[in-house]
């Protein structure tokens, strides 16, 4: 019996939830720390233009993470459903196929992205001042895309196999090493933004090495077998992972959309101010992903075991946690905006004022984000993907793009900062009004509701 089976079959839902949540939440926030640390060192060690340049390149992370999430979450969900149904052969097969797919796809993306780095940087919103820095950063990230993809996908499987503490340990090592390497490469070796990118890659590789410890555990259910390419398995991996792919791809749309809007309304000052908020947003955003990542293996396992009461209890506990986290983040934004901006070494008064104005408005969106991620994950984890895709498309694409176009026409830069809260808020209100009763009160069938 695997670690996940022992835990989820014998423990209360509350105890299992926090055993998954705490290390996962810490791990996700440390993952975001890898990106935020780049910003802190770049802003303080190189300057505001370089900081804006790295922010332009952030969608590269979204491309790599979105693809590895598609395969990792899709494979991990199918793995947990198979484990809950005691189909260990299928679980091993799914794990093997998923890791092979990550290797193939990341190799192709890495090569194509490295070659096309300059036109991609321009597409992502680079201008004459930021282009060279952005290209330097992007080429290094693309060069090591396979390592980044492996680390992201394997951490998901390790978490789903009942070892969220080990997944957290890998991210702790990665974050600490990233701090050391950023200081060394930027301040000592004077490698500028290329040093920040290389530090992130090396730190991620160190985390990947930590994950390999899981394969030596006697209770590990993760075993590589000879790949058997079954069409149903590949289709299910892609289907179950597609909402996460869209969600992370939506992060790229979010960054590009905000870069374009602020460049139009506020120029380089706007880009630099957004770079500060976006680094902070990465930290908060991944915390909400952490809640979804925590409940995914639980709901998928309970679904495979046909334990529907435990699914409902998991959703209720996650809702409370998401609301508490959102209120906490909003309070930090309202009362600590000045301190948050100072962390990034912003000295230009215009940039500082614009960022301080934007933080409290932008952070309002965190009141709603937890609800949206919980229900997206719920539908996905029970193999009912269409509602999950719908939630992702509306909050991350349709409503966000519409808000970025319309709100600035009425409110100027204030409207830009309020675009994300508007998209998240409207989606959450719809879910609470029309979907929650069906999720909490109805018993699940094979397809859902």
UniProtKB/TrEMBL annotation:
Pfam families: MatE
Keywords assigned by UniProt, alphabetized: Antibiotic resistance, Cell membrane, Membrane, Transmembrane, Transmembrane helix, Transport
Record InterPro entries: MATE_fam, MATE_MepA-like, MATE_MepA_subfamily, MdtK-like
GO molecular function: antiporter activity; xenobiotic transmembrane transporter activity
Record carries keyword Glycosyltransferase: no
Major site of localization recorded for this protein: membrane
Coiled-coil region: none
GO cellular component, one term: plasma membrane
Protein localization: Cell membrane
Recorded topology in the membrane: Multi-pass membrane protein
Keyword hit for Membrane: yes
GO biological process, one term: response to antibiotic
Family classification: Belongs to the multi antimicrobial extrusion (MATE) (TC 2.A.66.1) family. MepA subfamily.
The protein's name: Multidrug export protein MepA
Species for this entry: Lentibacillus salicampi
């Amino acid at each position: 019996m695997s670690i996940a089976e022992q835990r989820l079959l014998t423990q209360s839902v509350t105890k299992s939830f926090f055993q998954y949540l705490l290390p996962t939440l810490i791990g996700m926030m440390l993952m975001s720390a890898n990106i935020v640390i780049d910003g802190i060192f770049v802003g303080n060690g190189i300057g505001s233009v370089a900081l804006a340049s790295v922010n332009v390149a952030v969608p590269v992370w979204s491309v790599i993470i979105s693809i590895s999430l598609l395969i990792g979450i899709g494979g991990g969900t199918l793995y947990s459903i198979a484990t809950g149904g005691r189909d260990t052969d299928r679980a091993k097969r799914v794990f093997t196929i998923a890791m092979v797919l990550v290797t193939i796809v990341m190799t192709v993306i890495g090569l194509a992205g490295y070659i096309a780095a300059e036109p991609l940087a321009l597409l992502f919103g680079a201008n004459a001042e930021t282009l060279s820095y952005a290209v330097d950063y992007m080429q290094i990230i693309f060069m090591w895309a396979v390592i980044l993809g492996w680390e992201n996908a394997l951490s998901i499987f390790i978490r789903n196999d009942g070892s969220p503490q080990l997944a957290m340990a890998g991210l702790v090592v990665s974050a600490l090493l990233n701090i050391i390497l950023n200081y060394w490469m930027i301040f000592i070796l004077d490698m500028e933004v290329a040093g920040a990118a290389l530090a992130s890659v090396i730190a991620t590789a160190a985390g990947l090495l930590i994950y390999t410890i899981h394969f030596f555990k006697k209770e590990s259910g993760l075993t590589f077998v000879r790949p058997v390419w079954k069409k149903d398995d590949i289709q299910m991996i892609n289907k179950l992972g597609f909402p996460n792919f869209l969600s992370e791809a939506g992060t790229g749309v979010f960054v590009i959309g905000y870069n374009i809007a602020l460049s139009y309304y506020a120029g380089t000052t706007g880009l630099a101010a957004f770079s500060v908020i976006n680094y902070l947003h990465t930290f908060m955003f991944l915390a909400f992903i952490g809640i979804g990542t925590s409940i995914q293996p639980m709901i998928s396992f309970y679904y495979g075991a046909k334990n529907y009461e435990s699914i409902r209890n998991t959703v209720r506990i996650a809702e409370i946690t998401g609301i508490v986290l959102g209120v906490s983040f909003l309070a930090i934004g309202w009362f600590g905006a000045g301190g948050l901006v100072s962390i990034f070494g912003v000295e230009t008064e215009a940039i500082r004022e614009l960022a301080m104005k934007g933080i409290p408005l932008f952070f309002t969106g965190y009141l709603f984000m937890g609800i949206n991620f919980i229900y997206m994950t719920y539908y996905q984890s029970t193999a009912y993907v269409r509602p999950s895709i719908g939630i992702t498309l509306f909050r991350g694409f349709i409503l966000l793009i519409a808000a970025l176009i319309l709100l600035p026409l009425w409110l100027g830069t204030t409207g830009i900062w309020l675009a994300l809260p508007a998209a998240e808020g409207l989606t959450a209100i719809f879910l609470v009004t029309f979907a929650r009763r069906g999720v909490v009160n109805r018993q699940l069938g094979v397809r859902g509701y």
